């Protein structure tokens, strides 16, 4: 319930921000670019108007180019400063290494080159280990529990149990 209300509120805020941006954009364009009155102008007046518009376009293009050059310069400078900071720290970002599966033959071939022709069995020199059967060693005596009831009762009987274990 609360989550859906928060999502709805966020959606409304985003829509309101979009509307406000559109209004601000339209106000800015009306302020900077008033509508052109072409009706009733002579040919000479239209030519001068076109020349003025071309001059304004050139100025805007120069400003845009200058700003792009400044941004590019600043990004390069930021990158250089980040590299200097990393150098001063003495720590470099290590790349993530990927695991590569290579057989023993391929390793020997890469180390020895064409000299290596025999495949090597790495398991041949290992010792063989016999598994001991643990169940055979444990022989559990099944006895009647009533035989030792009196012998095991009391503290002496408990002491015998611990000593036996």
Characterise this structure.
With 165 residues, the protein is an all-alpha fold. It is built from six helices and no strands. It starts with a helix and ends with a helix. The mean pLDDT is 79.
In short:
The chain is mainly α. The protein has helices at 2-32, 43-89, 104-112, 134-137, 149-152, 154-164.
**Poorly predicted tracts of residues:** none
The outline comes out as elongated
Number of helices: 6
Radius of gyration: 44 Å
Class by SSE composition: mainly alpha
Order of helices and strands: HHHHHH
List the helices and strands and how they pair.
Elements: H1 2-32, H2 43-89, H3 104-112, H4 134-137, H5 149-152, H6 154-164
Question: What descriptors fit this protein?
Answer:
165 residues; elongated
